[in-house]
Amino acid sequence: MKEEIGILEGRQGQVFEKKSGEAEQLDISCEKTSLSGSVSQRACVFCGSRVVLYPVADALHLVHGPIGCAAYTWDIRGAVSSGPELHRLSFSTDLGEMDVIYGGEKKLYLSLIELIDKYKPKAAFIYSTCIIGLIGDDIDAVCKKVSKETGIPVLPVHSEGFKGTKKDGYKAACTSLMKLVGTGSIEGISPYSINILGEFNLAGEAWIIREYYEKMGIEVVSTMTGDGRVDAVRRAHGATLNVVQCSGSMTTLAKDMEEKYGIPYMRVSYFGIEDMSKSLYDVAKHFSDRPDIMDAAKEIVSKEVAKLYPELQKFKKVLAGKKAAIYVGGAFKTFSLIKALRSIGMSVVLAGSQTGNKDDYERLREMCDEGTIIVDDSNPVELSKFVLEKEADLLIGGVKERPIAYKLGIGFCDHNHERKIPLAGFIGMYNFAKEVYQSVMSPVWQFAPRKGGKI
């Protein structure tokens, strides 16, 4: 006998369904540690720090802990580099039982000296894992000693996995980056310049976005951290504006730079026609004393939309009326995905994130249609329940959500950090629509029939 899927009692406050006529502000529980037994889709603090810092291509990335932590996060992003690829090598101190008993500081020191001598990195990031928090290795002292001996920045990343959520890993990464910012020369930087924060150059997306801004006459000082360079990060304080793409991962750094260097920041999104256009216009408005920048932005948008719109209409004719479920890392990405799906005729029946806050979920409530489920820090059982009950045709998520979609007999779109096809920018919107079309309308589903609303 089939039984309806339930929600764990301790998770009920993190699930909300938008109902007709609701005017009150959404009251959803969020920004808390995952419930025991929930099998959260989140990653740990250490993994959060790794996904932020990993794309810095000319830095050494050394994981201080057991080999499994380095193996799990090896090549963790589809972040490509236009030059050095040191970031694609995963190094570990490979702590064993004796190191846990007697401490791993000596092993860390010797590893750093050997690796820096061999690879000549511009800087080194040292990641603390859970075991380091337990045995108490003083990695700050080791980093300080090695930095003095080698002459390069050796930066501790306090990312012990048990310390909180993935979001705390983002903060640990930002703290380390902030130690680099301000240590380089700002000579020659244009007053019409920006840093792009929270863009990780998945499948070359940072290059697409950088080209738009440069065509507008704006200098991009650094991208943090996609196709990142240590020297660019060191002079990032010379830019006059920070634009934050992934707000969950990089808002901490933007706020720190605003407080220390007086650099304002704005949140942007490069997914979908509407948000991509707005991101260019908003930056152009910031430099209001240069009307030619706005003129260039309008020209870029006009040309790109003229090419893209007819193609999207072809997809829309087929996809109109289809339903999508979204579960991604940051809520800000969800906003853009809802708009992008609507532009090709699809509705959203589930919208969730791993790291959203109350303001994010309130905005989701305002954007979503009646009956949409809004969920914080979900798990596989819940996602399956909502996908089935709402009869979704597509699940948009990351690598851990892919098996859920395929087991339920519906299409899937990877919008996380392992992908190899760019989904940002105007060309990215075309790639996204094409991927959604190919997945939802694939004939393979006749051989993997959709499961019913209960299991």
UniProtKB/TrEMBL annotation:
GO MF, any single term: nitrogenase activity
Chain coiled-coil ranges: none
Pathway(s) per entry: Cofactor biosynthesis; Fe-Mo cofactor biosynthesis
Keywords for this protein: Nitrogen fixation
Domain Nitrogenase/oxidoreductase component: 44-440
Pfam family, one: Oxidored_nitro
InterPro entries with a match to the protein in the record: Nase/OxRdtase_comp1 (IPR000510), Nase_comp1_CS (IPR000318), NifE (IPR005973), NifE-like (IPR049939)
NCBIfam families membership: nifE (TIGR01283)
Function as written in the Swiss-Prot or TrEMBL entry: This protein may play a role in the biosynthesis of the prosthetic group of nitrogenase (FeMo cofactor).
Family of this protein: Belongs to the NifD/NifK/NifE/NifN family.
Protein name: Nitrogenase iron-molybdenum cofactor biosynthesis protein NifE
Native source species: Chlorobium limicola
